[in-house]
Amino acid sequence: MVWSEGDHWRCSVKIHENFEGLIEYKYIVTDQDQSYYNWDPGYNQKLYVFGDESCSFSQIKFIQDSEGKDNTVLLRGRNASGGLLYNQLDDDGISDSSQHSHKNHKLNNQEHLIPVGKDKYIKAMSFNIHFFIDMNWGKRIKLILQAMKSEHPDFIALQEVMPYQREQIKGNMTNYLYFGRSRSCDENDQQNGILFRKDRFFKLEGGHIWYSRNNEQLDYGSTAPRMMTWGIFQDIANNDRKVGFVSTQWDDKSVESQQKSAEIISQLCPKLKNSCEIIILGGDFYCTENSQQIKTILNQGGMKSARQNYDPGNNNLQFGTKDDQIQKQYPTFHDYQGERIKEKGIQQDHIFYNSDSNYQLYSFRVLRNIKRVKKVENNMKQLYYPSNHYPIVAEFIKNDKEEKC
């Protein structure tokens, strides 16, 4: 393991070619007795399969115990068909750049391939990318793209997207299609767009719904026109499997507008459920989950909060760490202050899914570690963040024990 500038662990890992077909890995390094482990703020790297340089892996996480003890490598991955895998490699199955001898370690009884096909695994992201062009946009766009490419979600709910930002994102996220429009009659205004993987889904239908009595207008005390973008997407691998996905941003000031927005969403969700196996709603709500506005979505809209319902210690499909256990404490709005925001930060970005879905929540994360560290005078560090919001990610697995009618 090599400690690099910016306090990030970097190492290369190679997987023998008998693991051909794996497209995504996460691995951690822990001490032998698992008494300590935590997510390290490392950037995602790439893995390569022996004999196939074209096969790269887009998602890897690093964990290193702080005391430098004898360490163990744990792998988990996702293959091309969507199956989730925990490593069953022997000592010779893994090598790293420093030639350390890492032992294979089983995590309880979870070392198995979960029989989940490509059409039964969904990853969703919600990300307010902040519309300001003068907030170090040249640095921010690189970090925004890093966050999206490293996670490679199936759907991304974007907020505050300006046309110039949209075009840069579309030009770099070539495996995705973008769906969205301006919130007002001004084509240069903000959008709540949806990015979706074109290699896996195609859009059957979609549209835009304003939280006002007249489209593109202010209403209910809002400070700007507020709306949602929604779509129904069909899985290319399964004609019978459809996903409803919604991206939204509520008003930042008016509680009346927020409540009306919640009521309109609660009317849409049951309609989408008639056509879709799962409804996923992502956005910037300017409300915490304890607010009456969010409770309206949960109670009247029949939705669940990914944050509230994620319990890594209670589900053997979930791969929990100490960091996962405290995810609910992380704010999502940090105003470019990162960890310095502390209790002043707000959990206002959320991902919801319908409570009667046959999909099981697999994970929920706040991506706090996407940042650039630059050293300035007197060894001081300048931190650059992709946005004034952290992106959030939720993963879902189809439960085949009970089919929907």
TrEMBL record:
Pfam families reported in the protein's UniProt record: Exo_endo_phos (PF03372)
Endonuclease/exonuclease/phosphatase domain: residues covered: 125-355
Extent of the signal sequence: none
Q: Which Gene3D superfamilies match?
A: Endonuclease/exonuclease/phosphatase
Q: Which InterPro entries match?
A: Carb-bd-like_fold (IPR013784), CCR4/nocturin_mRNA_transcr (IPR050410), Endo/exonu/phosph_ase_sf (IPR036691), Endo/exonuclease/phosphatase (IPR005135)
Q: Which GO terms describe its molecular function?
A: 3'-5'-RNA exonuclease activity; carbohydrate binding; endonuclease activity
Please identify the protein, giving its name as recorded. Endonuclease/exonuclease/phosphatase
Lineage, uppermost ranks: Eukaryota, Sar, Alveolata, Ciliophora, Intramacronucleata
